[in-house]
Design goal:
CATH architecture of the largest domain in chain A: 3-Layer(aba) Sandwich
CATH superfamily of the largest domain in chain A: NAD(P)-binding Rossmann-like Domain
CATH topology of the largest domain in chain A: Rossmann fold
Radius of gyration of chain A: 20 Å
Structural class of chain A: alpha/beta
Largest interface: A-B, 69 and 70 residues
Number of helices of chain A: 8
Shape of chain A: globular
Number of domains of chain A: 2
Order of helices and strands of chain A: HEHHEHEHEEEHEHEEH
Strand order of the largest sheet of chain A: 5-6-4-3-7-8-9
Oligomer: homodimer
Strand content of chain A: 15-25%
Largest sheet of chain A: 7 strands, mixed
Low-confidence stretches of chain A: none
Chain lengths: 210, 210
């Protein structure tokens, strides 16, 4: 397989969200590249190149057929089978992420969660089986989980990440306000809300000449 | 003021999170650039350049004095006075963001929230006064709010963004799974969790040769 850049994958995933909305909420059957571009922050030429790369071409008269394009994107992006994701740290944020995410993606689902609070373990929380963090490694290994979300406080985020990686996790979405140190070959997205909101507020004030 | 890049601001805000942790949780007084670099995903040279730009230099023997550096970063990044932020859409995710964010930043606070559900308006939710979305424009104008968080469903995110911008908002943190179209001069960060988690899962599978 060719090497696909981070940005390109992000764009293709964004096209899918736009297409799903056009299909399910607005009842559209076709879309032109310039429409897909304006709703996803890309250029029309970029949309055409990206979709050509996944092997889909539109017609100049009607544009792209939405359902067919959704299938092609799914074949390109999605895992072959349903994939279970783990989440560590079942506080307000963790629980909101589970409720928000599950049901939105056809192939991915948060199925296993971990916490240190005895009231939150050996239960079913928002449809997920919960375990104590001390059992993290054996559970992740047994369930062959490759993707995890970290929503623990900053003080324990690095040690949780280390254990996840030792147990075979390859991709981490980190909401803790700390930058994780991980070995080569592990993919991390840091999505700390505090950093992000401080940045947005900074540019809200200093952006007027842009 | 010189033009400061997006990435540089993000790094400086990240340094602050690392410094706060060293100060408050670990009781450290000094830090070397290489330590700050490894905890924030930057290079040592980059740390030194960034901090020189905000007018702070360390000593070769002791490194940077943490409290002084925190003050300098605060002067550089923070608004002069406390700044109130608005949040639109008080579902699970919106509420988790309020609870998570408030108290974490010295100058920024989510103070005003909007929803369409009658059970959620004209109340105090997680310490924030809540209003109906139909009153969004007058309330935002009166309170001179410049930064807002959007946590509404994708179908209403664009119209909410349009109203926020008409009322004077300059920076938007968008959690709805749609890319917002905004005029020149408005700063937007899209932080859709579905897109992000799909991307992390993709690279967890396809990242092994990286």
């Amino acid at each position: 397989m060719n090497k696909i850049s981070d940005k390109k994958i992000e764009r293709i995933i964004t096209y899918r969200r736009v297409l799903l909305r056009l299909d399910k909420q607005l009842g559209k059957t076709h879309v032109f590249s310039h429409q897909l571009a304006s709703s996803s922050g890309a250029s029309s030429a970029q949309v055409r190149r990206d979709l050509m790369e996944i092997g889909y071409t539109g017609s100049p008269a009607h544009g792209y057929e939405i359902r067919g394009l959704l299938d092609s994107i799914g074949e390109f992006i999605d895992p072959d089978q349903k994939e279970g994701i783990a989440l560590v740290g079942v506080g307000n944020l963790g629980r909101a992420i589970i409720d928000y995410f599950n049901g939105q993606s056809s192939k991915l689902e948060i199925v296993t969660v971990f916490d240190v609070n005895p009231d939150k373990i050996e239960r079913v929380i928002s449809g997920c089986r919960s375990y104590h963090v001390k059992d993290l490694k054996p559970v992740i290994i047994e369930k062959k989980i490759k993707t995890a979300v970290i929503t623990v406080p900053s003080g324990s985020a690095q040690s949780v990440a280390d254990e996840l990686i030792e147990a075979g996790v390859k991709g981490i979405l980190n909401y803790a306000p700390i930058t994780l140190t991980v070995p080569h070959g592990i993919y991390v997205e840091n999505r700390d809300m505090i950093t992000t909101l401080e940045k947005v507020s900074y540019f809200a004030k200093n952006n007027t000449n842009k």
